[in-house]
């Protein structure tokens, strides 16, 4: 049998080598596809997080502006109401009420930031699953 003969069989070592190359190519292809899927997931999560953050910032800004106007007018109303009798106490009470409300809101904002789930949690979870699956496959192969 000559190497040019189409019916010729490859020697055993060359056939095993070709099988190994094909297996490596399949594994590499699978890893690339897996990484591409995880990158797409991270991209989708990033877009969702950016959209959610933009929406939150808009709502907080609008709500904060409206609450500031409301607080201004409530404060002005209380001061005008007590202008003839206890104007300084009225001004102090309004200022103190705004101080307390501001501190409460800041503490709640801090709590929201502290208790928020981490961004890209789904991507990280999927990557952990992939790592565990790979570790189990490698451990099973070594046995």
Enumerate the spans where pLDDT stays under 50 for 5 or more consecutive residues: none
Q: What is the SS-derived class?
A: mainly alpha
Helix content: over 70%
Radius of gyration: 33 Å
Number of separate domains: 1
Descriptive report:
This protein is rod-shaped. The protein is mainly α. Helix 1 (12-81) packs antiparallel against helix 2 and helix 1 (12-81) runs antiparallel to helix 3 (121-142). The model has no long low-confidence stretch (mean pLDDT 80). The protein starts with 11 loop residues before the first helix and ends with a helix. The chain has helices spanning 12-81, 83-115, 121-142. The protein has one domain. It is built from three helices and no strands. The relative contact order is 0.06.
Which labels suit this protein?
143 residues; mainly alpha; 3 helices
Structure at a glance:
The protein has 143 residues and is mainly alpha-helical.
């Amino acid at each position: 049998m000559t190497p040019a003969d189409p019916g010729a069989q490859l020697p055993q070592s060359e056939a095993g080598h070709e099988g190994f190359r094909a297996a490596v190519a399949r594994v590499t292809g699978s890893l690339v596809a897996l990484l591409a899927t995880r990158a797409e997931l991270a991209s989708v999560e990033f877009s969702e997080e950016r959209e959610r953050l933009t929406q939150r910032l808009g709502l907080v800004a609008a709500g904060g502006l409206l609450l500031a106007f409301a607080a201004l007018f409530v404060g002005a109303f209380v001061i005008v109401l007590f202008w003839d009798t206890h104007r300084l106490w009225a001004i102090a009470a309004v200022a103190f009420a705004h101080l307390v409300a501001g501190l409460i809101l800041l503490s709640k904002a801090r709590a929201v930031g502290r208790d928020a789930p981490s961004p890209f949690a789904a991507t990280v979870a999927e990557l952990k699953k992939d790592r565990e699956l790979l570790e189990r496959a490698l451990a099973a192969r070594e046995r």
